[in-house]
Amino acid sequence: MKQRLNRVSVLALASGLLTLAYSLFAASPAAASDDPAFGYWLTENKRAIIQIGPCADDAAKACGAIAWMLEPVDAAGKPKTDSKNPDAKLRDRPLCGLVVFGNFKKDGPGDWEKGFAYDAAKGDLYDAYMEIQKDGKLKVRGYMTISLLGKSQIWTRVPDARGGC
Question: Is residue 163 part of a domain?
Answer without folding.
Answer: no
